[in-house]
Specification:
Elements (H helix, E strand, L loop, with lengths): L5 H10 L10 H13 L4 H14 L5 H20 L1
Helix pairs in contact: 2-4, 3-4
């Protein structure tokens, strides 16, 4: 196998397809902020909730997952307050 120089490697990487992701919408950012505030900025807990929802309801928009997580947390808070 031939040794690659740094220039060869960077040239190879530059011609590969780049994966780009759209920036999150303002609504998505607001929902994420609301969810994080509800779990006291515990991002691991927020992601666990989102993953569970994604497991049972795949192929939904990101905003839907955030809305469901917020709904579940609000319902849990209401049920514990009653």
């Amino acid at each position: 196998m031939q040794n690659l120089r740094d220039g060869d490697l960077s040239a190879c990487l530059s011609i590969q397809a780049k994966i780009t992701y759209p920036a999150p919408s303002k609504i998505t950012q607001e929902l994420a902020s609301e969810l994080l505030s509800m779990v006291d900025a515990d991002s691991a807990k927020a992601m666990a909730i989102i993953r569970q929802i994604m497991y049972y309801s795949p192929n939904k928009p990101v905003e839907w997952y955030y809305e469901q997580a917020i709904f579940q947390l609000n319902r849990k808070l209401y049920l514990t307050a009653v």
